[in-house]
Write a structure and sequence with these properties.
By secondary structure, this protein is of the alpha/beta class. Helix content is 30%, strand content 16%. The chain has a five-stranded mixed beta sheet, covered by helices on one side. It has a five-stranded mixed beta sheet with strand order 4-5-8-10-9, covered by helices on one side. Helix 2 links the parallel strand 2 and strand 3.
Length: 283
């Protein structure tokens, strides 16, 4: 059995299937981890959802900001979609309710103790160890199940931007969502700098990648994540970054988690015009 992790699909269904073929992926024996953002921007969001759902236990998924944006658009339609969204086909599909119910049951964090590996879409704040991250992710999942419309209405926004054990209610849930689905860099005091979307070379002087934050309590964990297309594939610092910007004309990247192997990258034809990515659930 092989276990692969693949970066953000963002509706690039054809490229996803081609990459699985390159890996000789067999859902009867192999497993695939997907770092979130299955949908949006690319042309094949509906096909991607249907296929990943059909993989059943062969696939492990965490939710990304675009996945949450889709769920919010369905739960609170008055909010509407954004310019550049490609979610109408999903929302109009005859099986939309089945697909969205399945998507809403996916977690923000996936951990496999046998592999010694954890997956999130974006990152973790420096104040959290894995136990705290797991607990906060579970709180979000519970809120999504018990009062989804209320949760999605309160989900949007950039504050609070620093962790406190005293955070409660929507502030606590929003902070968790922002860390796990939007985070790229923090300042040296551990404050989230959510507006920065560039690469490492152009980061402001007070910004450090979340995985290099001083005193990061999750250091020592093996963490796989996506989201940061301007960073691209990065293996080091105890993390593996897998969003290499397929939807923007980059590549779709896979790594094997259960055995040493070089990454496998599929050059993408550019489903969208190359440009700066946008966070679907930002202000």
């Amino acid at each position: 059995m092989a276990v692969y992790a693949i970066g953000d699909l963002q509706g690039c269904y054809d490229e996803f299937r081609t990459l699985l073929d390159l890996l000789a992926f067999d859902p009867a024996s192999d497993r695939v981890w997907l770092t979130g953002d299955l949908v949006n921007r690319g042309p094949g969001s509906l096909a991607a959802l249907r296929y990943v759902k059909a993989l059943g236990q062969s696939a492990s998924i965490v939710l990304g900001n675009h996945d949450l944006h889709l769920l919010a658009a369905a739960a609170i339609p008055e909010r509407g979609l954004r310019r550049g969204d490609t979610l109408d086909e999903v929302l109009a599909a005859p099986d939309r309710d089945e697909l969205l119910d399945w998507l809403s049951q996916q977690p923000l964090l996936h951990h496999d103790r046998h592999l010694g590996c954890t997956m999130v879409h974006a990152g973790l704040p420096p104040q959290w160890d894995l136990t705290m991250a797991t607990a906060c992710a579970a709180e979000v999942s519970a809120a999504m199940r018990t009062a989804p419309a209320d949760f999605y209405r309160a989900m949007y926004g950039n504050k609070p931007d620093r962790w406190s054990d005293d955070l409660q209610g929507n502030d606590r849930l929003r902070f968790t969502v922002n860390c796990m689905t939007r985070l790229r860099v923090v300042d040296h005091d551990g404050k989230l700098l959510l507006k920065y979307k560039g690469g490492l070379a152009d980061a402001p002087p007070d910004a450090v990648p979340w995985f290099r934050a001083p005193g990061r309590r999750s250091a020592g964990e093996r963490i796989v994540f996506g989201h940061w297309s301007a960073l691209g594939y990065h293996a080091g610092d105890g993390v593996v970054s897998l969003d290499s910007g397929c939807v923007w004309g980059g590549a779709l990247t896979a790594v094997r988690l259960d055995a040493p192997a070089p990454p496998v990258q599929l050059a993408c034809r550019g489903a969208r015009e190359i440009g700066a990515p946008q966070d679907a659930i930002s202000d």
